[in-house]
Structure formats: C-alpha cells, structure tokens
C-alpha cells in the first residue's frame, strides 16, 4: 500500500480507525493476532540442548569423562557411574544458572525498550513500543524514536533524522499533505515516519501503517539483529584469572600425581585422583556465578526502580565519586505549582498545591478574579502556548506533558478557564521549546481570523526581545526604567526559590509571512509566572548518605541562579563555601580555569545541555568517576561521555535512554543513591564468593599435596572431591550472591576503578584460610588413620566430613571483611538453607548404606562429630577472634 499517496481521511477509512479516538481494545487484540508483536525478528537463539552440551566442553571435564570411561572398562563400575552422575548434575546446575542469567537479561531488554504514546479509546497512554499495532494513533515529540512506520496526520515543526535508513544525516521536515506522484522512495516520503528513526524537533501525530518486519526497517533487519554478548570488565578479569588458576591447578595436580606414583600408589588411581582434584580446584563455574550475581543484583535494582541497560554499569556504580544531577523532577517533586504572578506591575499570589484545580488569586491580601486587568488574557495565553493536558486518573488530576506547561494549565483552570476556551482558537504554527532557545512560540488564529504570536520562556531571553508591555491602562513602550523593574521582579521571585516563566505576545498583520526569524521579535511583555517545584522529601537524606560514602552531589539546572541556590540550600547540598557557576561564566572559562574550580563547585545554573559535556569532562580530568543524569536529546553526548549515564524513565526521551547505562523508572535522585548502594553490594558479594570458592579449592589441593609429601595414603578419593565441588562449592556460593548490603557499605569511600580482584587483603585471606582448611582436614585424617591404620575408609570419611564442615563454616566468615562474628548468621536465610541442605546431603552419603560403597564412607559416632566440628571451626573462628 502506497500510504504516502493517500490523504488522512482515506488512511482512517482503510485502517478502520478514528484519529480523534484511536483503536478500541478489541481492535488492538484482533490486530495483534493478525500482525504479531511490533518487533524485528531476533537472532536465532541457541537451542537448549546445545547450551546443556556446552557445560561439558571444558577441557578438564572432558579428561575426567575419559578417565571414568577407562574406569568402567577396568571394571570400576561404581566409581565410574558415581563420577558420571556428579558431572551431569554439575552440568545441569551450570545450565540452569545460564538460563536464569539469560532470562534476566531478556527481561531487562523488555523493561528498557522504548515507549510509545498512543491514543486508545479516546485516551492517550504510554505503552512499550512492541505493543503498537497497525492503526494505532501515535504521538511523537523531539527525542522520541518512531515506534512504527506511520502516516503523519499532524505536524508542528516536525523534523526527523533518518540516517539509519537513508544515510542522510540532515533532518527531514515533515508535512501532512498526500504526495500525488508515484514511485517515491522512502527518503522523499515527507508525510511518513519510519520505525527506528529519530524525532529531532517539534511534535506530531501519525497513524501506524506498518509494524515489526512489515516496515522499511524490517527490510534491513539483518543489520539490526546481529548482537554480540557483551562481557563486563569484571567478567573479563575473572576469565583471565581462571586461565592462570588452570595452569597453577594443573601443575599442583601433576605434582600430586607424580608424588603419589613415586610413593607406590597405582598410576590409574593417582591419575583419576589428579584429574578429580584439577576439576575441583579450577573454579570453572566462577564466570557463571558472577553473571548470575550480576543478574540477581539487577533484579533487585529493578525493584528499587532502577533499570540497568549495561551490565558493566553495575561494577562502575561502586566507583562513582561524583553525581551530576538535574534539579527538576530528579531532586524535586516534578509537580510544578504556580504560586505567584507578576502582572500590571503588581504581584498576585495563588493558592492551592499540586495539580488540583481549586485555588484563588490574591493581591494585597484581598481575593480577586478574572475582572483583574489582563489576568484572564495572561492565563489564556498560557493555555494556548502549551502542549500539556489535564487528565483524571484514580480520582486525581494528573498532567500528560511537561510539568511547567501543566502548572500554567492548572493556574488557568483555577480562574475558571476550561478546555473549551482553548478550542475557540486554532494553532497555525508552533515553534517548539528547545533547551538552547529556552522558549516556545505558537501562532494562533481566533474566531475572527485574527492571528497573533504567543511566546513563553526564560525571562532573561524574552525581556530583551520585548519593545512593549501591558498594564492596567493598555500597551506601552518598554523603556529602560521599566525593563529594570521587570528584571527586579524576576530577581525577587527567584530569591524565593520560584522558577520564573515570562509570557509575551505580538499581533500579526493580515497575510504577514510566518517566517521563524521574525515571529519572536518586537514582542509585548504580558507577565511572569512564578512557580515552585518542592524538593523531594527523601533527597536530602540521600545527598547526606552520598556525602558519607565519599560521593559529591552536584546540581545542574537551567533555572535562575537564585532559584538553584535556594533549592540547593534547602537540600543541604551547597556548603557555606561552595561555589555556584552560571552558564555564561562557563562560556568564558578556559578548560584549565574550570578544572581548578570544579572541585569547589556544587551548583551549575542557567546551563545548556552543551555545558553538561564540559562539566563531565572537567570532573573526569580531575580523576573522578562521574554519574550524569539527563532527559533531553541534547543531553545524550554528556551522558555518553560520563562513566555512568543515567536516563529518566518518565520524562526522558528514547534517545537519552538508549545512550544511558542506567534508567530511573521514577526519575528520583534517591534511586541513584539506592543503585550505587546496590552496585557496591553486588561487587562485594562477588568478592565474597571468589574468596569462598578459591579458599575452599586451595584447601582441597593442599590436603592432597601435604598427604603426598608425608607419604600418606589418599585422604580423599576422586568421587568425594567431586562431591565437595558440587555440593559445598555450589549452593552456598550462590547464596552469598544474595547477601544484603553491610551496614557500613555507604560509609566507605568509592572503590578505586583500578583495584584488582584480590585487593584489600583478599588474596592473603584466601591463602591463609585455604592453608588452614587443608591442615585441619589433614589433621582429622591423621588422627583417625593413626588410631586405626587398617580402616582407611574411616580416616577418609573423617577427612571428607572435616573438609565439608570447614568450608560450610568458612562461608559465614566470607560474609564480612570484619570476620565471622560481625554479622547475624540468620540475616541471609538463603545461605542458612544452602548450608543445611549441604549438611543433609553430607549425612546422606555417610549414613545411607547404599551410598557408602559409592562414596567410600562409613557411619561416624557422635563423638567423632564433636571432634570434626571443633577442628572445622578453627580456620574461621581463629581469625574471627583476631578481628
């Protein structure tokens, strides 16, 4: 269908949709069944059976399987079957870990997918772009990704950048008229919007005519669906560590085998023991456990309303030393309320909070109404130069659109103006708000076909463009004295932490050309809106907590310097000697000058998105790890340049979200603090189970090595070593990944990004605990063997039980750097359950007679267990008392 050739009415008829009401829920369901989800075909997923087989591609596992095959051929059927079962169970655990991680990542992709604003059953609502169906009426604005191919039916200075499709980087101005000629290529279809392209300017509405693979983007889907698995820096470090450990483990294992053969042990027995030891010693599950720990942490972050788009951000969060945060909506409630008006040279006060439409206007303590000169005109102009809508949800008024626009709209409703008053006027042209221009304008036509321009924006931008002003007696020329009076009015409002918006107008002559360059000149000043966005209650505590954690919080805002300063002081963000810099000062400063003052600056006011990049680079040049928030299209460069880009989930544009590594679902500063805390905790949890697994592995290798050096029989048989690797290394290590943050996690300075995995004494802890675990296991073996040298199985059972119990006690020591006694053992119920399950499995292989010949065990009396528990506790308790 050549949709570009059809006029709007024909498109509506063919798709059975009304542009005024959108689709019904029934139509949506029917079309989804017919056309499917609005997604490009994903890359073919690896079959599950292949993922399972990959668990056995490790070289040492292959050697072990070959050894068990030899054992079977030599008639050692029980050992061979037992080892095969353990290897396969280990494979299943690895498979389920990988599946869990994959599902978590898929869920993340869905959560961080772009949103679309669609009209359904007469109401605008935000949905995931994958839910868009053919016929949906879609609204787009600057910064959005177009969610589907659509025929544009409304355009307000709408421009789209279509380089993803055409290679042409210049934005294309869009219009609504049908194109009559035939054979028009996509790049020339100026009344169409295409899936995946970027809205760079203006606003518009369109009807979806193609979704998923039935789009222009779908035709080149192969370019879009080639995805690579991205590993995080920590995963890469651990992969390198794994290679080193493999070499060390193989050398030590070879040494054990050689010593065993020299001492007269059978070559086959020593070979099987050596391979089993190597498999147990090499932490092949470490990368999988790290991935699972990251994905579990990410799930916790989602519950705290932070979506991680890039896993590497989880690690970087723990190193953040500066948070550069927007003020509006992030540090404040984002519920703008007009509290004051400046009109006719007088200040009017407005009652009522939030978006409730009840309130009154007072001057000099006396109530006034629409009879006050120019009041109705000013509020009507504010309604017309406005893209927000007032809606009722769950019995409360909410704003669909920009909060500033919403506040102006609510102020008009308080005076009694309604939506019907807006409908008496026709918007002929719109010059959308732009953070660089700091203003928005509309050309309006009234019922008498008279046209005029309404402009609203920053007072310091609009007052210089005004040549006239209005008061109670009519329009007058704006002299220098009056200009200073207006500037003084702005100053008095900003000192009260009010954000100021000026509103101006200009009548247009008949047939006057609507050239952008001329519309916003020679304006008439009408009045000022003074509005406040109160600070969020939880932000002050979050800033204080960040300060204790060694993280500096910086406020960045486009607001007036006095407003920014007042809010910063309310939040206890600005110290007495803290600097406040304005945008015009940044423009004059050299790179070196900014770097010298950056550490003393806490507030940046009157800045543009372009300034943000300069601020980020200045902090980074001083060695800081910077987290930067943003919501607009122009914020994307600064967000990309920062170490942790943070997009806004509610008010952020799709482009900003895509550039971000973290998206806040509630646009709240306190969520950034929670994400940093969780990021620090995830890293610490990964360190905990690295410590646990490696110390356990060191203990297993050393007990065998010490025994060989002392010319003793094998303290552990291969099946026991593999059982320890499966049970005690697996479940408790996973449970460590679920540890809650320690009480002082936010009282420590940020982690050095260059810090190695074994920093802060982790390496020495692993070696010291590993040596002690090996020694107490060997001691248990020697004590049992010397008392009863003819019963080797009894001695091996004692060693086996001691090794398991020493590791299970050691796991509680790994919960904190401060030692085993520093935390309540029952805080982590998952760890307690994992340890109980491991103990029960140990008791089963010791006391269940059918398993005794398989695991070379024998039943132990109660006094042996008292001895085992006493010496098993030594490695952890000894260092606990030392702490």
TrEMBL record:
Keywords: ATP-binding, Calcium, Calcium transport, Cell membrane, Ion transport, Magnesium, Membrane, Nucleotide-binding, Phosphoprotein, Translocase, Transmembrane, Transmembrane helix, Transport. InterPro entries: ATPase_P-typ_cation-transptr_C, ATPase_P-typ_cation-transptr_N, ATPase_P-typ_cyto_dom_N, ATPase_P-typ_P_site, ATPase_P-typ_TM_dom_sf, ATPase_P-typ_transduc_dom_A_sf, ATPase_P-type_domA, Cation_transp_ATPase_P-type. It is found in: Cell membrane. The keyword Transmembrane applies. The chain crosses the membrane at residues 56-74, 244-264, 270-296, 689-714, 720-738, 766-785, 791-809, 829-848, 860-881. Pfam families: Cation_ATPase (PF13246), Cation_ATPase_C (PF00689), Cation_ATPase_N (PF00690), E1-E2_ATPase (PF00122). Its main location: membrane. It catalyses: Ca(2+)(in) + ATP + H2O = Ca(2+)(out) + ADP + phosphate + H(+). Residues 2-76 form the Cation-transporting P-type ATPase N-terminal domain. One of its GO terms (molecular function) is P-type sodium:potassium-exchanging transporter activity. One of its GO terms (cellular component) is plasma membrane. GO terms for biological process: intracellular potassium ion homeostasis; intracellular sodium ion homeostasis; potassium ion import across plasma membrane; proton transmembrane transport; sodium ion export across plasma membrane. SMART domains: Cation_ATPase_N. It is an enzyme of class 7 (translocase). Its EC number is 7.2.2.10. It is a multi-pass membrane protein. It comes from the Bacteria. The keyword rRNA-binding does not apply. Gene3D superfamilies: Calcium-transporting ATPase, cytoplasmic domain N, Calcium-transporting ATPase, cytoplasmic transduction domain A, Calcium-transporting ATPase, transmembrane domain, HAD superfamily/HAD-like. Belongs to the cation transport ATPase (P-type) (TC 3.A.3) family. Type IIA subfamily. This is P-type Ca(2+) transporter. The lineage of its organism: Bacteria, Bacillati, Bacillota, Bacilli, Bacillales.
